[in-house]
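Hi F.,

I've been meaning to write this up properly since the lab meeting, where we talked about keeping a consistent format for the predictions we share between groups. The idea is simple: the sequence comes first, exactly as it goes in, then the structure tokens exactly as they come out, then a line or two of notes. No screenshots and no reformatting. I'm using this chain as the first example so we have something concrete to point to.
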Amino acid sequence: MNPRPSSKPFRSARTMRVVLFSVCLTVPSLVCGQAPPKKPATTLQKPPAKPPMPQMDQMTNIPYFTLRDGMTSTLTLQNLPATPTNVTVTIFNMEGRSHVLDPMTLDPHSVKTINLQDVVPQGDFDSGNIEVAFHGISMAVTCQVSVSSVDKRVSFESREQDMMDFETAKLDGILWLPQPDAEGYLAITNIAPNKTTTQLSLGTKTEEIPLASRQTRLVKLNDEFGRHSPDPGLISLQYNGLPGDIITTGFVLNLKTGYSSGLPMTDPGIMQSSHLAGVHFRFGQPDPSEGFPAGTQFHSPLLLANVSDKPVTAHVSVDYSVEDKTPPTKTPPKGVKITPAPVPAYKVTSVPVGDLTIPPGSVQSTDLSTVLAAVDAKTVNDAGVDIDYDASPGAIIGQLTSLDQTGDYSFEVPIKDPHAMNQLMEGINPWTLENGVNTILHLKNTTDKIANASAMLSFIGGTYSLGQIELQPYETISIDLEKLQTSQKPDMRGHVLPKGATGQFVWWQETPYSLLGRSEHENVTEGIADSFSCDGNCCDYFEDDGYSYGDSSDLSGAVGGADGWYEVIHNYYDCYENYWSGPATSNNFSSENTSVANVSVVDYGYDVSYGPDAGQTQTDAYYNEVYYTLYGYPLICHGPFVSQTDDMGASALGFTAVQHSYSNNPFSVACHISRWFDTTYNGVAHHADDVGYDDGSGHYVDPSLGDPVYAMEAGTVTAAVSGVGAASYPACMNQHTSADHVTIQTSDNYYTDYYHITPTVSVNQVVNAGDEIGTVDNSGCQSKPHLHVQRRTSSGTLVNFELLACRNPLPTTVFDEGSVYDDIPN
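Output, unedited:
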């Protein structure tokens, strides 16, 4: 029986008790000539380990790599957990033939880079796609390929793509050729086990592209679509497979000038809000310390495309931040040692760019640097952009590139929906200061309220805590790791960033769905840059605990004095045992003996005042512990997360509105739903219902092999597939395994799929509600016999529905005790 979480937000009145032992002495005379024994301040203790998360076979894919025309492709693998992970990398050439690399083990919390030139076979393996497989929790290993040419000074990324990046079988992007010799390319890869046909459209022309399993096709957009205009155009791709069967990498190159940029293709179906944002764009003349040639001038054209069928108005605004050098109104007393935060405070200014009304299928642009022409870019820490539009989520997609007047220096800025299905609570991105590369970390608050982030840098032999970072509404900040390393500024534990280091940048947001973050690796001398912006993991909890800090001189003083001081620190940790510290806010203190000492809140921290009596006392600091968790079994990868900072909190899932109801029972006995529409398992949304029997008392019972299945609505049979066979569970999970099934087109032109059944009907047969259409079988990937039902539009979009005959006792928002698992991609 599986754990069954409550459908209501869970709250527990749990308070963290932080203890400080403060020794107070009379000065100058001492009783009996000796001081009472001092008790040291509590020290940082690693929190107890959490129970392990479920382990299973996992797989992710990268659409494209190439070694042609002098290009170098570097595969970056990140191992997120605190334990080693065994990884198998399979290289596929353009025709889908495979070559498996030698198995490798990734060290805990590590980043490994592989030059593919060193490991792929000679001959026709100079381009293709990549599969990365491992055993562990979902997204425990992340990956990306960076393609570059130092000679031609160009680079672009081919990022991993997972099922959570797709909701429909349609992708949209924006093609922009800013220079006469610029050429656009789109690499299209089929990762489904069967042949898939794509329809690629640009302007008035559409091209059909059939792809065998694991085959990659590189489309030269200029040649095949006759596209040479600098005016941006909407490019769309549709395919006849399931969402996620087709993955893409797009890019634009001008090998004469060194211009390069990405051409991202997005599934608008994953969008959950009508807000887009980008973190870090360049404008004006850069700071000379960055190393760009004298006279370099950046501009940043923002392109917005309307992929809906109605006009949409988008409101665009930018923000920029400068360091706040205003001196504090109060300073700590002499002798009080306060560790300065590694990230200083900034002043943020928001500037409206204006409104763009975009017709259906059109692209409009606006240069963000224009509205900041009067701002001295050399004084600016960072800048970001926000886009709000007056249409349903997914109606607008965006693309942003910062480039100089020659095009040689160009930087892609991902435009994202902070609420999208593939946005998570935490980001884990690689960073490096090796071989002339500098890493800049960027964070942006995408809301109109103050939001807090916590961040740390891990490296071989240690960690560096960036502490808690408060971001004002819409604020964007950057953290230059080279400058931070050169300054040797210690974090609050006294750690410094070592020279020539590499590791992982871990950040998480204390306000769910408020932040975007990424790390940008730049080598200005070689004109090469890489951007890592994918959120990092599927942790099912984030928690903090606390301790108090102060050395012996802070914790003792004269009778009646008021010169002591200490800090309250809280420690964050996640399911990967990433662990870092930041200051905690406490307004509630107590002392066992206020005649000896007490604590009060002051501007610079917490002040210790000593009473009229000599001796020692224990003071307790209380602060709000924050605990984030997700409902679902064994875990849910895209919440929504909800936190409650007044104690400990979490929330149940949000749900897609019900679009249709089926009144008829698909079985001959009472039915019972095991997994509902919108539940999520292993990072994949379950947009279907898994159905079995009800035992008459509200409990689930497995159907038996051979039991009949009946049509819930009248219609025409459009598919009757048999002979797929059984797959080995759980190894088959995430393998896009199909199953025997029947599909019925109903009178409203929707399609109902019945999976894991052997058909007893044939294609084009007309059936009535209640007619037998098949029998339960063991085909496909499933943990035990059941009926998997899904409803979709003619274009393949899965929609929510109710099986009224199978309505379970509420709540209906969680896995039931009869949970079954399958891998019908939806």
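Notes:
The longest strand covers residues 346-358.
Confidence is low (pLDDT under 50) at residues 1-51, 544-556, 623-655, 809-817.

If this format works for you, I'll send the rest the same way.

G.
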